[in-house]
Amino acid sequence: MQVVLISGTSSGIGRETADYLAKRGFRVFAGARQPARAAVLAETGRRLGLPLEVVPLDVDDPESVARAVERVVSRAGRLDAVINNAAVGFFGPVELTTDDQIRRIFETNVLGAWRLTRAALPYLRRTAGTVVQISSVQGRLVAPFAGLYAASKWALEAFSEALRAEVKPFGVRVVVIEPGFVLTPFLRRRQSVQIAPDSPYAAEEAALLPRIERAAEGGAPPSTVAAAVYRALTDPRVPFRMPVGPDARLSPVPAQAVAGRHRLRCDRSAAHRPPQGARTAPRPTSRHHPRRLAAQSAAGPSTRTRWATGHAAQSLSRHHRRWR
Ligand SMILES: NC(=O)c1ccc[n+]([C@@H]2O[C@H](COP(=O)([O-])OP(=O)(O)OC[C@H]3O[C@@H](n4cnc5c(N)ncnc54)[C@H](OP(=O)(O)O)[C@@H]3O)[C@@H](O)[C@H]2O)c1
């Protein structure tokens, strides 16, 4: 029986994934920083006789991380996968985001995942296991007022990309899951900048928030992310990055739907600049050629143009990341 440790299972995607995997034959250690908040999950596990155990796990605390991993290994004798799911959302303009807020978000979303991964790797090397990172569509694209949250997810993806190459020789896989909006308490529980009514950002916030809330209402159920995690653990052919949900696959569209007039603008010239050190510059396909995209943009902001523009930026940014 494969043994997995998941962080942040007191609600949302983490809870759903713990339940989903336990019902499909995984032995699940469900990390929760306040185990009492995972009581529903523990109760379901007991009632259905599932191989599921809640373990205390606060990813901000190095000792808690070490204890959780030790507990899994001492109880199950092995570890086959770690799922870095715990994270905190954030909403606010870059200018008004404080050092403390940056530290807090990075502490959980980046360091937390890094810590847990580091603690798990000695055991994952023995089992040729898997690291699953729950990132976000914002790990690839950025919307206004999401600078800090997106920066944390880009950082998560950056170290994951290095890790992927580093642990490949040991047979350890790394998969990054990028959901679009998911129906969980995440948005409601996010931290945010308090914007005063006379702030220069007040009008932008007032325009943006209702759009985000409307877009979030159309989010995917958390079971779609749980199913993607299951695939990541059971199918070695899955790609390194797995977008989840229709809005994540057509990622620029929701960013625009959310941001409206603030729609995502990609710097096409930068996106097409050849990566330093590359022997040959990446050649965009003709459909995504900058001149063609520029002409389409000039012709008007059709949905197709917006989608194509974003899509080109996205695929090129992936290309750049590969070459870096
Ligand atoms: N919902 C979305 O639209 C969406 C979209 C894309 C990506 N995601 C990603 O999906 C993941 C799960 O989010 P969710 O939507 O399921 O939201 P959620 O219901 O708010 O779940 C977040 C979980 O993280 C836990 N957590 C926060 N700080 C922690 C810490 N220091 N140590 C351990 N656990 C901690 C929370 O525990 P407490 O109950 O103790 O606070 C909670 O269980 C996150 O990585 C998020 O970035 C979500």
Q: Topology, pairings included?
A:
Blueprint: E1 3-6, H1 12-22, E2 27-32, H2 39-48, E3 52-56, H3 62-76, E4 81-84, E5 90-91, H4 99-127, E6 130-134, H5 147-167, E7 173-179, H6 186-189, E8 191-192, H7 202-217, H8 222-234, E9 241-244, H9 246-249, H10 252-259, H11 268-271, H12 290-299, H13 303-323
Helix pairs in contact: 1-8, 3-4, 4-5, 7-10
The structure holds NADP nicotinamide-adenine-dinucleotide phosphate.
Residues 7-8, 10-14, 33-34, 37, 57-60, 85-88, 108, 112, 134, 136, 179, 181-182, 184-186, 189, 219 line the site of NADP nicotinamide-adenine-dinucleotide phosphate.
Beta strands, count:
9
Beta-strand percentage range: 5-15%
Instruction: Indicate the CATH class of the largest domain.
Output: Alpha Beta
Associated small molecules: NADP nicotinamide-adenine-dinucleotide phosphate
- CATH architecture annotation name of the largest domain: 3-Layer(aba) Sandwich
CATH homologous superfamily descriptor of the largest domain: NAD(P)-binding Rossmann-like Domain
Give the averaged pLDDT, no decimals: 83
Helix segment tally: 13
List low-pLDDT spans: 252-275, 277-285, 293-324
* Fraction of residues in helix: 40-55%
Q: What is the count of distinct domains?
A: 2
> By helix and strand content, what is the structural category?
alpha/beta
Radius of gyration: 20 Å
User: What's the end-to-end separation, in Å?
Assistant: 38 Å
Output the CATH topology of the largest domain. Answer: Rossmann fold
Shape: globular
Strand ordering within the main sheet: 3-2-1-4-6-7-9
H-E order = EHEHEHEEHEHEHEHHEHHHHH
Describe the sheet with the most strands. 7 strands, parallel
